[in-house]
Write a structure and sequence with these properties.
The protein has 472 residues and is mostly beta strands. The chain is 7% helix and 42% strand.
């Protein structure tokens, strides 16, 4: 158990608020406790927001080289009847249990080199489970970029353990499943590295067992974080962010030093037809990098519209490692991909940086009108782009607060796109506390209708999922 003391509010600190404190390790774990609510939580909002992120940025006094190495923790905010309860638990992986038993760090790039190389030779690594949350058939899993999914209990947040879904996943599941609402399923992938590298494709249907669809060869081991799905295709943008194999094998340097940006290789577009999985279309375009996709749809003329956040290179990896305010240019783009003609046209949709784009989940994999996203500012903002008329709606946070990925929660019984709430986990540097703000998805400018506050901070999270109460 992490130290039991609470982080007391300190609004009268002499020093100015420092947003970097949101990266500090969690101070305690706990089950569901009552939260202080400002405003009025909508009565129809009933369910739980689960979020995941790197939460032990140091272990036994030793800092990790990058947040991507840090152990993950699940935060949960349960809302019903106008009240909120919050919980926070570390994902207790087998590796973390070993380290706690030994009383010292056993994994990571901060270890002495001989320990790192022994771990590499023995194939020993820790599943940090620190990036995202997968909901499938009333089960919940913490996701990591390069390992198996880790199941946890929705009520207690205690760790159940890693799973390969009955042998379906050979080595890893990425952090980003993507649903296609009309197909009642979600698709997933994992990057597999050996003498040859592959993208393993999976399907997680609403009913029935998980299944492996196909394996697509990669030209080399690459950093591949996300993809997107439509009713007919799975689409990958494989950037020239190559794993530096020798450095990785010899465990040399910090995490960001294990990757090289090779712009001369270009970005490979890989389009996998769902009705012909073994015959993907592949072609190369000018180099760019992307972490996250918003959505995609079939245009009816054989082309696919894909919205994604585009970076000029891999500089974002270093910025995240420095835990500083990210100033790397990231623009929401729309690409028109023509697999038959092997053409790729792209244009910026916004003139400012943004990340974590989200759409109404009822429009996943199909044509949509609205995209919600986080804008890093300053000031930070949650904004909505209307693709039909080009207008924007935004909530700009106070200078002492930071927002996370917006999660779009449709109002029960409604089928109209955008008739929803937007939930975002925020951090207040003045009190060193975190809370979940609830906004009207179609009137962000009005600000939160309510915020439910923890009495401590939640270390920065990346991704989350909403589970309606009526769904169990």
């Amino acid at each position: 158990m992490v130290a039991a003391q609470q982080s007391a509010p300190s609004p009268n600190r002499a020093r100015p608020p420092d947003g970097r404190r949101r990266y500090e390790s969690l101070t305690r774990e706990h089950g569901f406790e009552a939260m202080r609510v400002e405003g009025a939580l909508p009565p129809e909002l009933r369910g739980t927001l689960y979020r995941n992120g790197p939460s032990l940025t140091s272990l036994f006094g030793v800092d990790y080289t990058h947040p991507f190495e840090a152990d993950g923790a699940i935060s949960a905010v349960r809302i019903a009847g106008g009240r909120a309860e919050g919980a926070l638990r570390l994902i207790e992986s087998e590796g973390l249990r070993e380290e706690r038993a030994a009383g010292r760090m056993l994994y990571g790039l901060r270890l002495p080199w001989r320990h790192r190389i022994l771990n590499a030779l023995r194939g020993r690594r820790k599943n940090a489970a620190n990036t995202s949350v997968l909901r499938w058939q009333e089960r919940l899993f913490a996701l990591f970029e390069v390992d198996l999914a880790t199941e946890f209990d929705p009520e207690t947040l205690t760790t159940i353990g890693a799973t390969d879904f009955g042998g379906v996943v050979p080595s890893a599941m990425s952090a980003h499943p993507h649903a296609v609402a009309s197909l009642n399923t979600q698709f997933h992938f994992g990057a597999r590295y050996s003498r040859e590298s592959f993208i393993d494709l999976f399907e997680l249907p609403t009913r029935g067992p998980a299944r492996r669809l196909a394996s697509v060869p990669l030209k080399a081991p690459v950093m591949l974080h996300d993809f997107i799905a439509t009713e007919r295709h799975l689409v990958f943008f494989v950037s020239p962010a190559r794993v530096r194999v020798l450095r990785a094998l010899l465990q040399l340097g910090h995490l960001e030093q294990l990757f090289a940006w090779r712009p001369e290789l270009g970005t490979e577009i890989v389009v996998v037809p769902l009705n012909d999985l073994d015959r993907p279309r592949r072609f190369t375009v000018d180099p760019f990098f992307q972490f996250h996709f918003a959505n995609a749809f079939e245009r009816g003329d054989g082309t696919i519209a894909v919205d994604y956040v585009r970076y000029p290179d891999l500089g974002i990896l270093r910025a995240l490692g420095q835990q500083a305010e990210v100033t790397v240019q990231s623009r929401l783009h729309r690409a028109i991909v023509d697999p038959a003609r092997e053409s790729f046209e792209t244009r910026a949709l916004l003139g400012e940086s943004c990340e974590f784009p989200q759409v109404d989940p009822r429009r996943a994999g199909a044509r949509w009108r609205y995209t919600w996203m986080q804008a890093p500012g300053p000031p930070q903002a949650i904004l909505r782009l209307d693709h039909e008329d080009g207008t924007e709606d935004r909530w700009s946070l106070p200078a002492t607060r930071w927002a996370s990925e917006p999660v779009v929660v449709p109002r029960p019984g409604s089928t109209r796109e955008g008739d929803a709430h937007v939930l975002t986990l925020i951090y207040d540097a003045e009190t060193h506390q975190s809370g979940v703000s609830v906004l009207d998805a179609m009137n962000l400018a009005a600000g939160p209708v309510a915020t439910a506050w923890f009495d401590h901070h939640i270390p920065t999270t990346y991704h989350g999922v909403w589970v309606p109460r009526d769904a169990g």
